[in-house]
Design a protein that fits this description.
The complex is a heterotrimer of chains A (about 775), B (about 375) and C (about 160). Chain B is of the alpha+beta class. Chain B contains 12 helices and 12 strands. Chain B has helices at about 15-25, 40-45, 80-85, 85-90, 95-100, 105-110, 115-120, 130-135, 165-170, 270-275, 280-290, 305-325; strands at about 10, 30, 50-55, 65, 70-75, 175-180, 185-190, 210-215, 220-225, 240-245, 250-260, 265. In chain B, a hairpin with a 2-residue loop joins strand 10 (about 240-245) and strand 11 (about 250-260). The longest helix of chain B has 19 residues, at about 305-325. Chain B starts with 7 loop residues before the first strand and ends in a 52-residue tail after the last helix. Chain C has helices at about 25-30, 85-95, 105-115, 125-130, 140-155; strands at about 1-10, 10-20, 50-55, 55-60, 70-75. In chain C, helix 2 (about 85-95) crosses helix 5 (about 140-155). Chain C is globular, with a radius of gyration of 16 Å. Chain C starts with a strand and ends in a 7-residue tail after the last helix. The chains are: A alpha+beta (about 775), B alpha+beta (about 375), C alpha+beta (about 160). The interface between A and B is large, with 69 and 53 residues.
């Protein structure tokens, strides 16, 4: 069932760029991140990781390490009560059927990627823990590995797991592609390659665990998913209600803290020692071992008629899952559904595969499979336009999806699609063109659109809950199990409750991200938290309001529908007021609750058969258009982004400042992806395990991003908002590639777009 | 936390004491000034000194004296920030100010010293890794192992000289003063290096680099261009230092020195020779740039592949010379703050307002309503 | 090797006995309980751990406290004047320049040093000054805006502080 959520006409606090409740703490550094926590008697933990991408563990000997003074415990796979972690679809839903993916908490007889955890140590000091890790003796027998998905799927390839190396395959077939391509006026073929990328948040994975009263194993860590308490309980083989996860304010997540990071290790170590334990990964550990964004090979054939309308797309995707499944099958599903872009395409074939290799595992990262495809479909569309002499805005205008259109997967688009106006506004926001500074400098502009699902796949039956309650003095408390990754998640909940209950923002306290004390609200992933927890708080606040106004109506006389709550009072139509404290006292006297727990259920559906293109996959999508102006040094291939504008239809901006922040930050991450970021792996060995080699943009490398916030008033979130966490990272790489072609005529099809690759495309080398 | 390994720390107040401490501890000791190269390397287990002799407390090692007419002397422990900001350096030896100002990041330059940058460890993708990583891959000859992972079968180490200031000092004809147990000696910066990734310094381990002396600047012009991926942090992928002395318009002396192309800075002698007796015209510049690409033999062990880096030698040398000639054909993207443009449309100075932000904030959860102050 | 250290941090004199090989970052966080200074890479490659030494931004992860006993060290805890925020803190809070907030302490201190050196920096000067502080969340635009706003206010008159 779907909960109906209506929109108010006149909004007072929603839509205002209010200063976030956590802003002051952050500027005075009072926010206690996971690694800032310490407890008396705390042990320090370290992980022994596999040096090899593919090897058999012949011997694992911990005696010497265990015997070292100050070492509390050394754990290997045999010490883990249940050495299996379920890794797909984290969160409150467990019924996922065939996608179920697992990995070992600690390696058993084999290691499948460099950095795979083999043993854990807890010791009195970090130095001792590291020394003990060094003292663990492991004898490996190196085994042949596979290091590209192509090699992994070749006949006779060494299997990464017992089964074949094909982890998942999705197919869409809609319309007669061969016929449509045969009749097309222009057919563009392209092969695109995207790279392995790291979330590279500045706060490394970290946490502290202890055994709290009544034996509850409590883990305070930096996570996007507090529901992993269940996974930890399974690993420890303790009842799920004996594990509590407290999520801290995160120093960045971007999907990298969606899967289990330190919590299972901390749970094990604190359970085995009975003492508090802290684990903080080094930067190298983070870059070495965390699951990353999938590299893709994307092959496209795009046919268009003389008007520039796409008539068919034939698409083949191949992704590298690395050594473990994690969320790969779902990432690939996002790619499959979005492969043809936010456009009307009558005939589409998609064949998408993801394979196991002995490379670092890949999983969730901002954009989640709907990102790699943007680089391909937006490059293709630009090439179609170029072939037909159309301008970039026009070609997107004629092809843009419209409400009521059906995606290749069979999903009908039910909300407004703002692509044409987003294109126009982003393009215009670049302002007058910049003149080239020298004869060897060429300047060009590029445009790229995208669409990104927000909210989880409909057959996961997503829900979120929240508790909203007044204290006797009229101050308000919100409890919601929503992790705040820095996007303003918690602060938006305050604005929504303030709007409905007429409470001054300064009188609201919000408690988030505690699996024991805040009602569960699901993961801060999939651009779903404003949508889901926002709707949960909205619904809860409205239900609470209805109860309170019933009492107020009795006190003031008249109908509850004629009352409003504003500025910490109840207000009648004729201007009489009742202070909130007075109302609450009356509620106490007559026994009407001053708090409420509410649950929001997202629109649900049944799994679709992709091949027959039969239905709904995601609740809705957020659309965007980015425009870039670049200069290309045609003697060196160096590219500078001179100007950048990013337009998204966010439905309704709950906090325009936070929306701008998400757009600007996402766009710059996308520019990093487009221009410089790459995890370089040679035969399974990661060569980029520091910030000196894994390069993310500095302030000197990117221009200001002009965020163009469009509010169509249509979306499934509170007050018709759409999710904006992931969407802005999608278009930049394609916008840059399109701008480079506009400037120089050279088409770049491989990410990142380094100076050397541009130089090669310009014919400067060989 | 990545801890530093334990060490004994000695903090002499004079160069004499420093020399003595270093001699006493022998091979177990290393010198430290800014620590920006040493400490990361120690954290990664690339350096394992048992004792450190700290140079920061030695007053005589810091500071700049002299002037462009007579020559300038820079203490080895002078920070790169101080070198970059020194008016006489900036005015008379602009390439040095540029190079010092382009090392890594602003924070790092506030600690890092000129002497440290001159002596900075050579780099390689297979070496600048943690102990655990190197152990996994198999140690290389530069540390803990006996083979080269970049060029298997090679009997030498190919780690790359990554100093920004070294090629400039070389091009400017600077000399280095060394203090050791046997007393002091002075040698040209060009003689301070040798082409070996491990023994890249001709300085003896018991010697301390105390100062760098620049000859008189009269008649000389210099420029430094740096290629790197980002506008900050990154070591040079290529550094090009050019110094010329002209009489009228005719070049009388020239030195073109390349950084990050070998285990040592490398003078492109043919390019230098090609310039002498010439005016700087597009033709003479092209000839010199072609000649400069000769000695550049970069390996694929840092950033970018060698065909690209080699090509960029030609382009950057030509651009450096063009700049000296006033034939500037437009700056490269990352070739220096003075050459790196701002973004178009940005005001040159604060224009009395905030740009780009959202509408002014109105409410604040945690306290007073706040916003820009009244503009009266 | 333990040494007795005398450090001046945020105008307070602090005496302590610590191993000489502890970095300033470790001493601040573990021995002086000044956890506002964050760690990002611990190799000098991200700027997260920036503090001021005699007013100049340096990387505490590769600084040795033994060398800093004659210096004034300023951490983010030393920026506000009691409950009165520094204009930079005020501007960062108002403009949403702190999102996840993890890079914020280091950026605030770097910006403080910049404005002390140049009260009216151009936007490009601000970029260059902040080029040693990685931020992964904001895309930098709001950070630059906030530094400009603070500069503007500091050049005018005392700003009403957030209390």
């Amino acid at each position: 069932m779907t909960d109906a959520v209506a929109t108010r006409d006149a909004l007072r606090i929603v839509g205002q760029p209010v200063v976030r409740h956590d802003a002051r703490d952050k500027v005075v550094a009072a926010t206690a991140y996971a690694a800032d926590w310490a407890l008396p008697g705390m042990l320090h933990a370290a992980v022994l990781r596999s040096p090899y991408p593919s090897a058999r563990i012949v011997r694992l000997e911990t005696k010497r390490a265990t015997a070292m003074a100050g070492v509390a415990v050394v754990l290997t796979a045999k010490d883990v009560p249940r050495n299996t972690l379920a890794t797909d679809v984290p969160g409150q839903t467990t019924a996922v059927g065939p996608l179920r993916a697992t990995l070992h908490v600690l390696a058993e007889d084999r290691v499948r990627h460099q950095g795979e955890p083999v043993a854990l140590v807890a010791a009195e000091t970090l130095e001792l823990a590291r020394d003990a890790v060094e003292a663990i003796e492991v004898e490996y027998e190196v085994t042949p590995g596979v290091f590209t998905p192509e090699a992994a799927l070749a006949p006779g390839a060494p299997p990464v797991h017992g089964t074949g190396n094909l982890l998942a395959q999705w197919r869409i077939a809609r319309g007669d592609v061969a016929k449509a391509l045969a009749g097309a006026n222009v057919v563009v073929e392209g092969e695109y390659t995207t790279q392995l990328v790291d979330a590279a948040y500045l706060e490394p994975e970290s946490g502290v665990a202890w055994i709290d009263s009544d034996g509850v194993i409590t883990i305070r860590l930096s996570t996007q998913v507090i529901e992993h308490f269940r996974d930890v309980a399974e690993v420890l083989q303790v009842p799920q209600n004996r594990v509590r996860v407290i999520g801290t304010y995160l120093g960045g997540g971007f999907g990298g803290k969606e899967d289990v990071t330190v919590e299972a290790y901390l749970g094990l170590l604190t359970l085995k020692t009975g003492r508090p334990v802290k684990m903080v990964w080094t930067r190298q550990e983070s870059l070495l071992s965390r699951a990353k964004r999938h590299p893709y090979r994307l092959r496209y054939r795009t046919g268009a008629n003389a008007h520039g309308e796409i008539v068919a797309q034939q698409i083949e995707l191949l992704a590298d899952a690395g050594a473990y499944a994690y969320l790969s099958a779902l990432v690939l599903l996002y790619s499959t559904v979005t492969a043809a872009g936010p456009y009307r395409v009558p005939a589409v074939e998609v064949d998408a595969r993801v394979a196991y290799t002995n490379n670092p595992p890949t999983s969730a990262m901002r954009g989640f499979g709907a990102m790699q495809t943007v680089f391909a479909y937006e490059s293709q569309l630009d090439r179609v336009a170029r072939a037909l002499g159309m301008d970039p805005v026009a070609v997107r205008r004629v092809n843009a999806l419209r409400r009521g259109d059906t995606l290749p997967v069979g999903q009908v688009i039910e909300t407004h699609v703002a692509i044409p106006e987003l294109c126009e506004r982003a393009w215009a926001a670049l302002g007058p063109p910049t003149a080239a500074r020298a004869p060897h400098i060429k300047v060009g502009r590029g445009l790229a659109c995208n669409f990104q699902p927000y909210g989880r796949i409909v057959w996961l039956h997503d829900w979120a809950s929240a508790w909203v309650g007044f204290e006797m003095d009229g101050s308000l408390v919100i409890r919601c199990g929503c992790p705040d990754v820095g996007g303003g998640q918690a602060s938006s909940l305050c604005q929504i409750a303030a709007e409905v209950l007429g409470v001054t923002l300064t009188r609201i306290s919000v408690h988030v991200s505690d699996s024991a004390l805040t009602p569960l609200a699901g993961t801060t992933t999939a651009s779903r938290q404003l949508y889901m927890s926002g709707n949960a708080v909205l619904k809860t606040a409205r239900e609470l309001r209805a109860g309170l106004l019933g009492v107020a109506a009795a006190m003031l006389g008249g109908d509850a529908d004629d009352l409003d709550m504003d500025e910490d009072r109840v207000v009648t139509r004729d201007g009489r007021t009742l202070a909130i404290a007075g109302l609450l006292a009356e509620c106490a006297r007559v026994g009407v609750p001053r708090s409420h727990l509410g649950v929001y259920h997202a629109p649900a559906g049944e799994p679709v058969d992709l091949a027959t293109g039969s239905g709904k996959v995601f609740p809705d999508y957020t659309f965007g258009a980015h425009a870039a102006e670049v200069e290309v040094d045609t003697e060196t291939g160096l590219v500078r982004v001179l100007g950048y504008a990013a337009a998204h239809d966010v439905g309704r901006a709950i906090n325009p400042q936070s929306v701008e922040g998400q757009i600007q930050g996402g766009a710059v991450q996308g520019l990093g992806y487009g221009l410089m970021e790459e995890v370089v792996v040679e035969n399974g060995i990661n060569l980029t395990t520091s910030f000196a080699t894994y390069l993310i943009p500095t302030a000197a490398d990117v221009p200001d991003v002009r965020a163009v916030v469009v509010e169509s008033g249509e979306g499934l979130g509170p007050f018709n908002a759409r999710g904006i966490g992931e969407p802005p990272i999608g278009p930049p790489a394609a916008a840059i590639a399109n701008a480079i072609e506009a400037a120089t005529g050279a088409r770049i099809t491989r990410l990142p777009i380094t100076a050397e690759r541009v130089a090669r495309a310009l014919g400067l080398l060989d | 936390m990545i801890r530093l390994p334990a060490f004994e720390y000695l903090a002499p107040r004079t160069v004499g004491d420093a020399v003595k401490y270093l001699a006493d501890r022998g091979a177990d000791a290393m010198l430290v000034a800014g620590g920006t190269d040493l400490f990361p390397n120690m954290k990664r287990g690339q350096f394992e000194p048992k004792a450190l002799v700290g140079l920061r407390g030695i007053r005589e090692l810091s500071g700049v004296s002299g002037d462009g007419r007579a020559g300038l002397t820079i203490g080895a422990a002078t920070t790169l920030s101080a070198v970059a900001a020194h008016p006489e350096v900036a005015r008379r030896y602009p390439a040095l100010a540029t190079a010092a100002g382009l090392v890594s990041s602003p924070q790092l330059r506030n600690a890092a010293t000129l002497g440290g940058n001159v002596c900075v460890d050579t780099r390689c993708n297979w070496y600048n890794q943690s102990y655990e990583w190197r152990k996994a891959v198999g140690f290389c000859m530069k540390k803990d192992g006996d083979i080269c992972l970049v060029a298997p079968g090679s009997s030498r180490c190919w780690a790359v000289s990554s100093s920004d200031t070294a090629p400039v000092l070389w091009a400017l004809g600077a000399t280095a003063r060394l203090a050791g147990p046997a007393g002091e000696r002075t040698l040209p910066v060009s003689a301070l290096y040798q082409d070996d990734g491990i023994a890249y310094l001709a300085k003896r381990p018991d010697e301390i680099l105390t100062e760098l002396a620049l000859p008189a600047a009269d008649g000389w012009d210099s420029v430094y261009l740096k290629l790197r991926r980002r506008g900050s942090f990154d070591f040079p992928v290529l550094g090009v230092a050019v110094a010329v002395r002209r009489e009228g318009e005719v070049v009388r002396e020239a030195r073109v020195v390349l950084g990050a192309v070998a285990s040592t800075p490398r003078e492109a002698a043919a390019a230098s020779t090609a310039l002498v007796g010439q005016r700087l015209t597009s033709e003479s510049i092209t000839r010199a740039a072609e000649a400069a690409a000769g000695p550049a033999k970069p390996l694929d062990n840092t950033d970018f592949t060698h065909p690209y880096r080699k090509r960029l030698v030609r382009v950057y040398v030509a651009r450096a010379l063009a700049r000296l000639a006033g034939l500037d054909a437009g700056p490269s993207s990352f070739d220096g703050f003075e050459g790196r443009p701002g973004f178009p449309g940005e005001p040159r100075a604060l224009a009395g307002g905030v740009r780009g932000g959202s509408s002014p904030p109105r409410l604040n959860n945690q306290g007073a309503i706040s916003g820009p102050p009244p503009s009266t | 090797m333990n040494i007795r250290l005398s450090l001046t941090v945020n105008d307070e004199s602090r005496e302590l006995l610590v191993p000489v090989h502890k970095t300033l970052l470790e001493v601040l966080r573990e021995d002086l309980d000044l956890i506002g200074t964050k760690h990002g890479c611990e190799l000098g490659e991200c700027g997260t751990c920036t503090v001021l030494v005699d007013g100049a931004p340096v990387l505490s992860c590769i600084a040795l406290p033994a060398d800093l006993q004659d210096s004034d060290i300023t951490t983010v805890e030393g920026m506000a004047d009691g409950s009165r925020l520094h204009p930079l803190q005020q501007a960062f809070a108002e403009l949403g320049a702190a999102q996840c907030g993890y890079c914020t302490p280091g950026i605030l201190l770097t910006a403080k040093a910049l404005l002390a050196d140049d009260p009216t920096p151009t936007r490009q000067r601000i970029r260059e000054a902040l080029a040693g502080n990685l931020c992964r969340c904001t895309g930098y635009t709001k950070i630059l805006d906030a530094v400009e706003l603070a500069a503007l206010r500091m050049g005018q008159r005392p700003v009403r502080a957030m209390t």
